[in-house]
Amino acid sequence: MGFFQAVYEVVKKVPRGKVITYGEVARACGSPRASRQVGWALHENPEPGVIPCHRVVFKDGSLTTGFAFGGAEVQKALLENEGVEVSADFKVDLKKYGYGGE
């Protein structure tokens, strides 16, 4: 399995109402220093709606400003629709909403 496919498999496991960081995805794929490549893989998402890339955030809980579906506002709306609280400064509380199922 290639790296991009591994990324997609990890992200598919993140349940509604939870988020995971780029670094956590990279570690789960066996490449702990490949956070940027995770971002590239998600930018190339071949199955939007099936691979929930909106559930991937930065290590401080910040939403992705260049989110492939239209920016942080769209990512915020998608997460809030799943019950994830997003602060006014576009951050998610990782202690509350972080996915621990790597």
Could you give the distance between the termini? 17 Å
Radius of gyration: 12 Å
Output the structural class.
mainly alpha
- Main sheet: which strands, in order across? 1-2
Mean pLDDT: 92
Low-confidence region ranges? none
Shape descriptor = globular
Q: What's the helix-strand series?
A: HEHHEHH
Biggest sheet features: 2 strands, parallel
**Residue share in helix:** 25-40%
The number of helical elements comes to 5
Strand tally: 2
Residue fraction in strands: under 5%
Quick structural summary:
With 102 residues, the chain is mainly α.
Protein described:
With 102 residues, the protein is mostly helical. Helices cover 39% and strands 4% of the residues. The chain has helices spanning 3-12, 22-28, 35-43, 72-81, 94-97, and strands spanning 20-21, 56-57. A two-stranded parallel sheet has the order 1-2. It is globular. The model has no long low-confidence stretch (mean pLDDT 92).
Keywords:
102 residues, mainly alpha, two-stranded parallel sheet, 5 helices, 4% strand
Architecture blueprint of SSEs:
Layout: H1 3-12, E1 20-21, H2 22-28, H3 35-43, E2 56-57, H4 72-81, H5 94-97
Helix pairs in contact: 1-3, 2-3
